[in-house]
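With this grant's support, we have settled on a layout for protein records. One resulting record is reproduced below.
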Amino acid sequence: MKQKGFRYIPYVPPEDPMTDDERKRRAGDYEALKAQRAKYGFGVFSVYVYLKGPDAPDFMPDLSGADPNGDIWTKLSPAQRTSYWKAVDACIVDAAKRVLGKELKSGEDLAAQSAAAERAGKRAILDDLECGKDFYRVYTPELEAIHQKVAEEFGN
């Protein structure tokens, strides 16, 4: 970012420690999965109701504003902000090539490739939790292993 004329503070958000229920869900515990599903449903819109609950789905965004770069880019003019985000995108592409060995067109391409790799690694998902009672005990730990492998390979 510095080479592109912008100030940037390296920041990695801290991971919240796993709750006992999250550990159970990741191990495929049916009752823990059922309790989460009862409260959050499929989790698609629950972010608007439960901003950051202790047992919220894993993809709930960090709304804390702890990233110090927010103070940098929010003070830029609209034109500077556009340039800033183009520079961020270019840095993502460069970092993915150097660190992960991935050829990307954009930061969005990283997300798309990561999602495609995860989809390719998943198998026999059932929408109905009740039908998946025995399934989730086997599936969830395997899904967690896939998530971990994708995170290691793509840096998520």
In short: Helices lie at 20-26, 30-40, 69-73, 78-100, 107-121, 133-154.
